[in-house]
Amino acid sequence: MLRDPAVELGAEHRFAAEMVSFEEHDDHVRAVLSSRDDGEESVVTADHLVAADGAHSKLRDQLGIRMGGRGSFADCVTISFKGRREATAR
Fold it and tell me: What is the per-residue pLDDT for 90?
């Protein structure tokens, strides 16, 4: 819903990337990104920085923006395995 109009307006989306650092300037933001695939770093310069990295956002913490609300809804562990029935001697 948001991606296509943003691309039409010139936005670039990076997937499997993590922001390592950012610097705010009067007329732009400079961010260093790291590829989660190979660790290669790249520099991006943009007019705006959008933090869409979830509730545990490093960016939100760096900017000093508090998180309101409940926080964690549940702590869950999922374990999946395949068992094999062994024949027993009688």
Answer: 67
Q: Is residue 21 part of a domain?
A: yes
Please name the residue that has the structure tokens 């508090």.
Answer: 66
Does this model's pTM top 0.90? My answer is: no
Q: What angle do CA 73, 55, 25 make, to 5 degrees?
A: 170
Residue type, 37: D
Give residue 32's domain range. Answer: 16-63
Give me the number of domains the chain comprises.
Answer: 1
> Is 59 among the domain residues?
yes
In 9-82, beta strands by DSSP E: 17-24, 29-35, 41-46
Tokens 């991006």 — which residue? 44
Task: With beta carbons less than 8 A apart as the criterion, state whether 34 and 41 touch.
Answer: yes
The tens digit of pLDDT for each residue in 37-71 reads: 999 999 999 998 887 777 777 788 888 888 777 76
In a domain, 41, yes or no: yes
